[in-house]
Write a structure and sequence with these properties.
By secondary structure, the chain is α/β, with parallel strands linked by helices. It has 10 helices and 7 strands. Helix 5 crosses helix 6. The protein binds S-adenosyl-L-homocysteine.
């Protein structure tokens, strides 16, 4: 279905309350720490020069655009219309691509600044009308959330995750991967979890046993990162 044909349906869900902080946004200067990421800015956001804004954690943690597109395509590539809940939205790398693919997105982040940045970045891509931004703690909001797909991109603990040989699920923040997955399962069995490529694969497979009957799990590795999908 073309985006225009969906707009009526989408306008209805726009009635949800948006919670975006109102203070003017001050961009951080590029520090030596983020310079490495800044050099890759166009692979993070191909429209970087059109007004994308980031903060330091955003630079470290944003999903590169091609990977975010592959997450969105895995959801059904816009064929299945529905709501994706992006539980850890950051500066919006994933939320933007889900919206571009035709989904309505509920984008949550505990950090008001991230929501402000993600909202700005969604405007750059022209998809702000398809995303409801919420400042809040995913774990507190979870019981009131409804969606067709839950997308989990929790913090990996900063760039140092790369130095770990076997990244175990307890290293995820703000809670271990089992707890995060269990909370997500209460919303829907259709879960996409974005994990580092050095994640302990046996632990990832064990996540399926948190549900009875066990969930089907699909693990997809791309050059940079490892992505785990539940059956969707
Ligand atoms: N996929 C995102 C990056 C996510 S980084 C992107 O492409 O931009 C992880 C985010 O989780 C951070 O922005 C952090 O503020 C947020 N976060 C941490 N704890 C949270 C919680 N309890 N609820 C919601 N968001 C949380």
């Amino acid at each position: 279905m073309a985006r225009s044909a969906r707009s009526k349906k989408r306008k209805r869900s726009k009635q949800r309350v948006k919670a975006i902080p109102e203070e003017p946004f001050k961009e951080e200067p590029i520090s030596p720490l983020v310079r490495k990421y800044w050099l890759q800015r166009y692979s993070l956001f191909s429209r970087y020069d059109e007004g994308i804004k980031m903060d330091e954690e955003g630079w470290f943690s944003v999903t590169p655009e091609k990977i975010a597109i592959s997450h969105a395509q895995r959801c059904g590539g816009g064929v299945v219309i529905g709501v994706v809940i992006d539980c850890f939205t950051g500066v919006g790398g994933n939320a933007i691509q889900f919206a571009r693919m035709g989904y309505h997105v509920v984008a949550i982040d505990i950090d008001p600044r991230k929501v402000q940045l993600a909202s700005n970045n969604a405007k750059v891509y022209g998809v702000e009308d398809y995303i409801d931004f919420i400042v809040g703690d995913f774990f507190k909001l979870a019981t009131s959330l409804k969606g067709d797909v839950v997308f989990l991109s929790p913090p990996w603990g900063g760039p140092a995750y790369r130095t770990i040989k076997n990244f175990t699920l307890d290293l995820l923040k703000p809670k271990d991967g089992y707890s995060i997955f269990q909370v997500a399962q209460k919303i829907t069995p259709n879960i996409i979890m974005f994990l580092p490529r050095n994640v302990d694969l046996q632990q990832v497979e064990e996540l399926s046993w948190l549900s009875s009957p066990p969930l089907n799990i699909e693990i997809y590795t791309c050059r940079l990162k490892r992505i785990m999908y539940n059956a969707i």
